[in-house]
Each structure stands twice: as C-alpha cells, then as structure tokens.
Write a structure and sequence with these properties.
Helices cover about 65% and strands about 5% of the residues. It is mainly alpha-helical. The chain folds into 2 domains: about 35 residues, no CATH class; about 100 residues. Strands 1-2 form a two-stranded antiparallel sheet. β1 and β2 form a beta hairpin. The N terminus is likely disordered.
C-alpha cells in the first residue's frame, strides 16, 4: 500500500500515518500496516503469489523429503520436520487456491468451502507444529541435547 503524504496532511494525521512533534509539523511517516503483519500473513501472501505448480512442488517435495529423512535417517528428524513444514506450506497454498476458486463460483456449495477452510486451518496448525519442532529439535542437536 502506498500512501501519498504530499496530499492533505490533515487526513494523513487523522489516519495515524504521520507523527507530530510539539510544533504540529509532520516528522516521520510510519507504516501502520507493519503492526498487522505477522508470520502467518506474510507466508499467506507469499503462497498466494506462487503458481500452482510451485505449490505442488513444495507440497509433494516436502512430504517426500520428510518421509525419506525420517525413514532413512531418524537422527535428522529436525530436518525432516522442516521439510514437513514446507509441505504444509504447499498444501495450505493449494487449499487456499481451491477456496478462492469455489468462492468465485456462485453455484458452489457453501459446505465445500467451509470444509476446505477447516482443512486449510488444520494444515496451518500442522505446519506451525512442524516448524516449531524443527527449530527446537535443531537447537537440541546444536547445543548438545540441552533438553535432558
């Protein structure tokens, strides 16, 4: 979102975009959207910019890598958890595309959209758990099993 600060400064002040000093002069433009950004919104925005093929590669590649790593090299479980998080990112993006496609179709049943939304939310939870597991497991390995 770009903001035109050269326009009506009163309107910019009313929106909280321009900070004021004691003399009433505008000092520094602030980004009010930065407060709303978090890791989930950033990842969601990134997933929405990817092609369907890229999302499929992330989903399938991450799942296959995670499975093979856990099966063949259990000591690299932290890396497998990271791959599982990548797979969840791809699946989330594909489900989000499905929801977008169904919501633009007026004949689409609301029940299907609700189910896809629930599945998308479940995928986000699974991906978050996998990412946290990857980080904490890596820290345990890197710091010499500090979690006795």
């Amino acid at each position: 979102m770009s903001i035109d600060l050269e326009g009506d400064e009163t309107t910019a002040r009313e929106r909280g975009i321009v900070e004021q000093d004691s003399g009433g002069e505008g000092l520094v433009p602030t980004d009010i959207e930065a407060e709303d950004n978090n890791v989930f919104r950033v990842l969601g925005a990134q997933a929405r910019t990817r092609t369907v093929a890229q999302l499929w590669v992330a989903a399938i590649g991450g799942a296959v890598d995670a499975g093979l790593l856990w099966w063949r090299h259990p000591m690299l479980g932290w890396l497998a958890a990271g791959c599982a998080a990548v797979a969840a990112y791809g699946i989330w993006g594909l489900l989000d595309r499905g929801i977008e496609r169904w919501t633009t179709d007026p004949a689409a049943p609301n029940e299907a959209v609700a189910r896809l939304g629930g599945l998308r939310d479940l995928t986000a939870i699974a991906g978050t758990v996998a990412a946290l597991w990857a980080v904490l497991s890596f820290m345990a390995v890197a710091l010499g099993n500090w979690n006795h």
